[in-house]
Amino acid sequence: MSFTAETDSHARLMDGVYRHQRHIYDITRKFYLLGRDRLIADLALRNEDTVLELGCGTGRNLSLAAARYPGARFFGIDISGEMLATARKRMQREHIDGIVTLAEGDAAGFDAQVLFGGSRFDRVFLSYAVSMIPPWREAIHAGLDAVAPGGTLHIVDFGRQEHLPSAFRWVLRRWLAAFHVEPRDALRGFLESECQRRGASLRFESLFGGYAVMARIAVS
């Protein structure tokens, strides 16, 4: 199967999964997508900074970031047209569609210049998206390529649950799999390798007994 065919197939899958769930997504996910608000705080944006979220979903994170940093400009892409429909309604309802630009695209292979008229951003982040993107390594590559010199890439996602009871880990992973979500146990090693290759620096933290992980990569 070609990369384009895989992208189209994943887009259809995500639209199917979230066609109805998108209406209750934010209400339910706040109880277990831990660390998202801390990521937004860690962006530490200045006026005129540009921010790109890969896998922006319903726009929840972009909305909160725009409220916290009204002087910045925000961009988001998602492979699901259904989720983007909800995100666009949110931006209009909150009157922030003037500083938030959304586009349909694949986080693992996108042309930011075509989508947004610019190829580099001061901050790029993925919030519980790495575990949902089958070619997750390619998505991180694309995210790092989109970071402007002196900028940062931020990730928060499910961790390895290494300090939590094995029964909890088993149940959690079975439940996540039902939603096509897979924690990336190899994430830290991959990020360390990428930072070494690119001459970037990594800050990696395990949160809540390994339930979640948070990473920050500074690009020189």
TrEMBL record:
<dbReference type="InterPro" id="IPR029063">
    <property type="entry name" value="SAM-dependent_MTases_sf"/>
</dbReference>
<dbReference type="InterPro" id="IPR041698">
    <property type="entry name" value="Methyltransf_25"/>
</dbReference>
<dbReference type="Pfam" id="PF13649">
    <property type="entry name" value="Methyltransf_25"/>
</dbReference>
<dbReference type="GO" id="GO:0030798">
    <property type="term" value="F:trans-aconitate 2-methyltransferase activity"/>
</dbReference>
<feature type="domain" description="Methyltransferase">
    <location>
        <begin position="51"/>
        <end position="151"/>
    </location>
</feature>
<dbReference type="GO" id="GO:0032259">
    <property type="term" value="P:methylation"/>
</dbReference>
<keyword id="KW-0489">Methyltransferase</keyword>
<keyword id="KW-0808">Transferase</keyword>
<protein>
    <submittedName>
        <fullName>Trans-aconitate 2-methyltransferase</fullName>
        <ecNumber>2.1.1.144</ecNumber>
    </submittedName>
</protein>
